[in-house]
Amino acid sequence: DFFKEAVDNANETDAIAKQDALDLAAGRTDDIHTVMINAEKAQLALSMVVQMRNKAIDAYKNAIENNLNHE
User: Taking the model in full, what pTM does it have?
Assistant: First the structure.
């Protein structure tokens, strides 16, 4: 299922970004470039899931409205 894969990807990228931030704060890494890239990937993945959800809700509302209009 495409939506499940997108959610799983968002969760995975978020976990990576959080771990990177913790590692940076703890001094276990000084690669801020990678930390920032992974944080941006997590944000984009979440944004994609939110947009997919919004489109699904819009499609559902549209289907219900069309159904009501044809009764």
Answer: 0.84
Distances (CA, A) of 15 to 8, 62, 69: 11, 35, 45
Question: What is the secondary structure of 5-54 as a DSSP string?
Answer: HHHHHHHHHHHHHHHHHHHHHHTS---HHHHHHHHHHHHHHHHHHHHHHH
Token pair of 20 as six digits: 């990177």
Nearest one of 2, 10, 8, 1 to 48, comparing CA atoms: 10
pLDDT in tens, 5-41: 999 999 999 999 999 999 999 999 999 999 999 999 9
